[in-house]
Amino acid sequence: EFLVEISGTTVTITCPLPEDTTTWELSGSPSGSPGGKYTIENHDSSPVNLTCSSGGQKYKMYLNARVCANCEELDTLAVAGIITADLLITLGVLILVYYFSKDRKGRGSSSPGSRQRGQKLQRPPPVPNPDYEPIRKGQQQLYADLQHRGF
After folding, report:
1. Are 34 and 21 in contact (CB under 8 A)?
2. How confident is the model at residue 113 (pLDDT cuts 50, 70, 90)?
3. Order of strands, edge to edge, in the sheet holding 10-14?
């Protein structure tokens, strides 16, 4: 029910009691001027027990607020804009990388990492065409009836 406002190192607490005769107690000892608002200047981020009372009503609050001197406040629209811009830039970079790398798929790489590791596998020789098979030893009778022509 308390309203707490933090700006830099200043913390302002508003008591839920509507009267201006509200008294404040900070960690059990009376402090501050009477009124509906209590301001802590140069708060050191240490936890504090606060009590505001008026007449027979009393409200207690445990304040554990972290403050800093050089913090910047951002509204929701600024945070949403930053996130959206970051996503659009990332998407643009991904599209550029995709289109520039698409053309390089058919090219072979000359980098040393593209070589095969381990034993090199040798391909068997191609199957010879039987029409142009060379004459081997022991098969001369097969071609004996062919006559040699002189040019």
Report:
1. yes
2. low
3. 3-7, 10-14, 37-40
98 in helix, strand or coil?
helix
Give SS3 for 34.
Answer: coil
pLDDT of residue 118: 56
Q: Return mean pLDDT, the chain.
A: 78
Q: Contact, 24 vs 16, CB < 8 A? A: no
Q: Please write the tens of the pLDDT for every residue from 35-52.
A: 778 888 888 888 888 888
For 24-61, b/e burial (b = at least 16 CB within 10 A) is bbeeeeeebeebbbbebeebeeeebebbbbbeeeeeee
- Phi, psi values for residue 45, rounded to 5°: 65, 15
Closest of 8, 1, 11 to residue 64, by C-alpha:
11
CA gap 105, 89 in Å, rounded: 25
Sign of the CA dihedral running 124, 129, 132, 136: positive
CA distance 74 to 108: 51
* Cα first-last separation, the chain: 118
